[in-house]
Amino acid sequence: MTPIESLETVFAPGGSIARSLPGFEARPGQVQMSKLVERGFLESAHTIVEAGTGVGKSLAYLVPALRSGKKVIVSTATIALQEQLVRKDIPLVVGALGVRARVVLLKGRNHYLCRAKLDKMRAERLIAQSGTMEAMWDWADRTTTGDRSELAFAPPGLEWEALDADADDCVGEFCERFRDCYFFQQRDAAKYADIVVVNHALFFLDLALGGTLLPPYDFAILDEAHQCERWASAALTATLSGGSVARLMRRVHRTYQLPAVYDADIDSGMRGLVQTLAKVPGDRYPLAASEGAFDSLAIVQESFYKLENWVLGNWQAALKRPSENVAEAERRRDLVLRGVQAHIATIDRMALPPTEAISWVERSDARDRYEVNSAPFDVAEYLRVALFARAQSIVLTSATIATGTSFRFLRDALGIDDAQEYIAPSPFDYREQARLFVAPPDCNPKDPRFARRIAPLVEEILDITRGRAFVLFTSYARMNEVHALLRDRVAFPIKLQGELPRAHLLTWFRETPNAVLFATGTFWEGIDVVGEALSCVIIDRLPFPSPADPVVAARLAAIDAAGRSSFDEYMIPSAIVRLKQGFGRLIRAKSDRGLVVLLDGRVGSMRYGAQILAALPPAKRVNDLSELRSFFTLSEGM
Description:
This protein is α/β, with parallel strands linked by helices.
């Protein structure tokens, strides 16, 4: 390939991509997206592209990235897309263009095995403490990458923590295994790579830490960009929980001989905090709703101050493994202090005014485990300054980031002022391949009889589609209620979210003919079910964010306080983006046919209903379920 070859030629029939990918079909949207991305690189402009399933967005951005000769970070939200990029798409484009490129998949530190921890554990134990630990020891003798994903099983959390390359245990160049450390080898490889593939968690954590985790880069491509706000907020969120405190104390004990009184003091403070938080009902509520929470937090904070002072006074004498190297001992001290001081700072953040931070309580599971979180009021201003004002060119792309023809919702959420925009047309014929059924107006989710009203509809629809469906709900209570009404009536294999771990449920669904899965609305995020195994998505109500959620409530209040409509600016766009994801799960090839069902009858009677429907892919709307029988009969004959 010559440097002046046009992108139209690269993607043309008989062009570079077609010669490397049998069956490749040129798509106008793919070519236009690629041209826009390349122009952004050349002119130092940011680019936003919505490219639905079938457009081929990965190839559209990889071609200009690999032609640029610059260092490019590609960040995704899901492991599946990272693996597709590294194993399939990037090698394909490299071969098609005839370029040389060094490509590295870089993960967070806790994904890698720490050789020093393993050596220490083996020196202290003659045999592994469990069957899974023995399997990890065996794997450690064979692996060349130390990447946990090579394991054929998910190791127990505490066992992997004892072996991972976590930053809070790492003394860096003072470590005996520094030169052959799996993590540092991969990080060094990333320094010299042309393309570095990461996930959003690592990308935004690097941003929050001032660029200490990733090598400097020229351009960044953020795929699955509809999840960027979530991951940016997570990177800037401080959390105090029983789990975070337990991890900290395990690190302290790995380093020092700590008197038991300090453990007892912290345990007592945390028990008091949990008892205080448990007095407020609900799984998620504003911290201010808990009377006495700030007093309880102050007691916990005081116990951390005592621990901090003890470390400062005993960091040499109390070392479990005394070191002749004072610098190494100082590094171990600083690692422990960093963890202690982070917990102190987290409690300080809880007291910030609501205009600066949102603090809330979350009950994480049925065993009354609580965590207290504090997130910035919004991430837009931070990203505007830290990312978009500094980076040469950022590409944001996803199948679901526009609301209608506008990117305003994404721009406002991420602080993007200037960017070139494009909505790539889908190669799929939604009017032929997809159907949309909206329940009658008397199906109102606010009606206490709603579950009994929709149950017969769901049963009839599943009969028409022969199962092959996700039935999704916005609450566990509604999910359980409808499932109880239908579990003995549906003639197909059926499971309920929670009966198996998420990954096992997905495997069951893919491998079981005519399966039906009852789940919550978040279940489809990151889900990939290929072919007709998933032919129907049923949604109980419009997926508006819950206004009772403390983070959502704070953002709604801010929009309203500015004299604007939070419902129009936040609630409706959020619902549109979520609904579009449903269509993306169903139609993934020109041979696919699928049905989206909205059981929320308000769509047909409220003013916002038409606006939401107009923003969805143009599936043919049906008003009579009998019309669907011929649709699916035709599908089965294809």
